[in-house]
Amino acid sequence: MSNNNVISVRGLEKTFEDGITVLNGIDLDIGEGEKVVILGASGSGKSTLLRCLNCMEDPTGGSIYFDGDDIADMRIDINKHRENIGMVFQQFNLFNNKTVIANIMMAPVHLGLKKLRKKKLKNAWISFTNIFKKEKTQLIEINKTKSEIKTEAYEKAISLLKRIGLEDKADIYPATLSGGQKQRIAIARALAMDPKVMLFDEPTSALDPEMVGEVLDLMKQLANEGMTMVIVTHEMGFAREVADRILFVDEGKIQEEGTPEEVFGNPKNQRLREFLSKVL
Questions:
Q1: Would you state the pLDDT for residue 68?
Q2: Which residues of the chain fall below pLDDT 70?
Q3: Tell me, what's the pLDDT at 2?
Q4: What is the gyration radius of the CA atoms in the chain, in angstroms?
Q5: In which region does residue 217 sit, left (phi positive, over 0), alpha (psi from -120 to 50) or beta (all else)?
Q6: From CA 247, how far away is CA 275, in angstroms rounded?
Q7: What is the CB neighbour count within 10 angstroms for residue 95?
Q8: CA distances (Å), 271 to each of 39, 47, 235, in order?
Q9: Which helix or strand (DSSP H or E) is residue 7 part of?
Q10: Cross-strand partners of 116
Q11: pTM, 2 dp
């Protein structure tokens, strides 16, 4: 994997249990800070490709390199890498029994407490084994308490809510919010983990038309700040404005790729021309 690539995909395949092959030999490099938009008709494999990038769908074959590890390898701890890969879904996936701020805090607090427990268990073992040693092993430094982990997560969550203009919704439950507000909070929740890359699976498809703009505006902000983004969308205006590169996926393969100017202005693939004629 090249140093300036966040994700490198080689020979990616996905066949479901019913025997249908959805991805058939995908090769793809995603550079640091690059904004890649994936287009394609329903059933073309674009959402499956996106979900394979953080192994929410287990690939049938091929490799997906992230941070130097092949995360498609079953021996790799995928949860460790998911900490650095934010995912935003069509249907928000917020916990309706938790407040907005609790939704945003959940993953950072869980991870922080998990790391704290691991350090404490390690120190307990070191302390025990030190009883039998002349030269004692130094304990692992614990630089955050349980309370400090929660406070830090709270402050980060409030900062993110301010950024998306929803600080006043911190103690509200998601069921009372509009679709656009829910999706912006879902994006804030993903950002709370400080990811290296953000994956968006048709983030506006479940929204009423008047709410689409507020979500796309937030995504444009992220793009302008240099976030690495991979986006499945049917918003052609957004794709034209934000994408560094556009991929057209059809029949489980990348049939064409290029800049927005190339893909929209001079499409070479017949299926791409047919697709664009229906959506533009």
A1: 86
A2: 1-3
A3: 47
A4: 21
A5: alpha
A6: 13
A7: 12
A8: 12, 18, 18
A9: strand 5-15
A10: none
A11: 0.91
